[in-house]
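Design job #97: recover the sequence.
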């Protein structure tokens, strides 16, 4: 039986932090084993914010290198750069003819961006969900791994896929489903500033490319409290977060040791932070080294991008041919 198809796009902005790793990246690593995955860097989408050519290129290169360093395998998954597969722009144009101003204006991400950047409410921003739908359905994806922020965009993709099928009385496009792992496999990484979540916009990220010195500094600065004064007291959120991180990054006996120290009030947060910093560094160091190695290797990066583009184009061209025939783009004269 052929594998089910998964499509996911990655914005070429920002570097991967631990939160990304234990969220999206780890899911991708599992998915590439069992599904026919198309992972791409959404560089066309990123034009809505008008990057300079230099920033665009370095963003794409960095993201590609980081995902490869984490273990995304170009032999298993099709990893490509969106702008290398221009077929998607053609499908986007066709889908735009049946995407309505009202529904596009109503999407939350459009309203948010229009509100925060009123000087740059461009048509690309408005039709962002249409391009995203084209990305997904051009490979006839059955699944799309999505976080909360992308649920509505996926809903739009489902709508546009169904609308095309109905309009041309066909079943060309599967209706893509959100991909979720059984058993709630996603691990949410807390922030070190006492907040619930590690994120780029939260400014509390520990990045995979960061050197050990910087990581140690960040961990040592993590917010704590004055320490427990009564045995077995409940941990306040910042301390609870440190323990959560420790559970993810460290061995069970290490966690048990600090838990016991907390419970009998002998804990010194400095010791806990030292240990946590070392365990994070142990985890990130090999990834960091691979990132730096891959970034130096343009030949390898070029090979990966070309190979991915070739596989993705083959799939995109096949779909587009069917789309055009259905629309009526065939010469009768
Ligand atoms: N909109 C997604 C994001 O901001 C990126 C993206 C573009 C995407 N095209 C996609 C995600 C197709 C999944 C499928 O993260």
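Job complete. Output follows.
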């Amino acid at each position: 039986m052929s594998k089910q198809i998964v499509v996911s796009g990655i914005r070429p902005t920002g570097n991967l932090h631990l939160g990304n790793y234990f969220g999206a990246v780890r899911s991708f690593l599992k998915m590439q084993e069992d599904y026919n995955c198309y992972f791409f860097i959404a560089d066309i989408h990123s034009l809505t914010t008008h990057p300079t050519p230099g920033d665009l290129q370095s963003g794409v290169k960095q993201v590609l290198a980081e995902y490869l360093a984490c273990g995304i395998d170009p032999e298993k998954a099709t990893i490509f750069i969106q702008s290398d597969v221009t077929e998607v722009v053609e499908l986007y144009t066709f889908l735009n003819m049946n995407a309505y101003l009202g529904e596009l204006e109503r999407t939350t991400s459009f309203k948010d961006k229009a509100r925060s950047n009123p000087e740059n409410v461009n048509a690309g921003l408005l039709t962002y969900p249409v391009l995203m739908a084209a990305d997904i359905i051009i490979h006839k994806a059955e699944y799309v791994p999505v976080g909360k922020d992308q649920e509505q965009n996926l809903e739009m993709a489902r709508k546009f896929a169904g609308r095309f099928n109905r309009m041309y009385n066909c079943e060309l496009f599967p209706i893509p489903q959100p991909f979720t792992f059984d058993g709630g496999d996603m691990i949410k990484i807390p922030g070190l500033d006492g907040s619930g979540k590690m994120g780029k916009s939260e400014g509390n990220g520990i990045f995979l490319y960061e050197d050990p010195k910087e990581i140690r500094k960040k961990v040592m600065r993590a917010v704590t409290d004055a320490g427990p004064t009564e045995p077995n007291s409940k941990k306040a959120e910042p301390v609870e977060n440190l323990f959560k991180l420790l559970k993810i990054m460290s061995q069970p006996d290490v966690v048990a040791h600090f838990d016991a120290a907390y419970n009998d009030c002998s804990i010194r947060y400095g010791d806990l932070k030292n240990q946590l910093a070392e365990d994070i560094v142990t985890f990130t160091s090999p990834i960091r080294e691979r990132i730096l190695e891959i970034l130096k290797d343009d030949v390898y990066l070029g090979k990966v991008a070309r190979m991915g583009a070739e596989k993705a184009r083959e799939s995109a061209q096949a779909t587009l041919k069917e789309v055009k025939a259905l629309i009526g783009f065939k010469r009768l004269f």
